Amino acid sequence: MANSTGNVQYQIIPSDLRIFGLSALQRKMSITRLWRSYQGLMAKKPWTVQIITAGSLMGVGDIISQQLIERRGWNKHNIIRTTKMMSIGFFFVGPVIGGWYRVLDRFVIGTTKSTALRKMLLDQACFAPCFLGTFLGIYGVLNGLTVEENVAKLKRDYADTLITNYYLWPAVQIANFYFIPLQHRLAVVQIVAVAWNSYLSWKANKM
Known about the structure:
This protein has helices at 15-44, 46-69, 79-107, 113-142, 147-179, 182-205, and strands at 2-5, 8-11. It is mostly helical. A hairpin with a 2-residue loop joins strand 1 (2-5) and strand 2. This is Mitochondrial inner membrane protein Mpv17.
């Protein structure tokens, strides 16, 4: 709407539109600042930031598992279980996957499509089977399973978990190895893996 006084035109903008525009701009600026801060920390302490990112997103995955898959509700949310998942992220997932990506980059050199394909094949044929078995075993120990119970659970769940892994990760990893710089690969994988972590948490806690 416009009012005129002489030759001067005044544009009247609804207050709710101004507020919405400012709020959207503020959100965009906040996201930009957070991303720049994250990149700055990655440049200074890449190893620490990658491990913290992995642990935090493992926790998010467990929360999603409990609330959306199992529908426990917040009153019945198992905080100890979430803490266990975060601990595995901090002390196992983050260091192991981050270290594995460094090893891959050292022995499979290059950024071509064929290099990305070779890295993916090594990752999925060699690393993924060992990683998933170890993850399920560690979580069984944290849940207090005996050796016999842990072995029985691995026999029941391992093959199914590995097959499910192959539905998701080959395509993700080709893109990750081809497009993403080394220092951001673990973060990208863990962001994609929020849904995967939810599945792993559900599978690891399924008795």
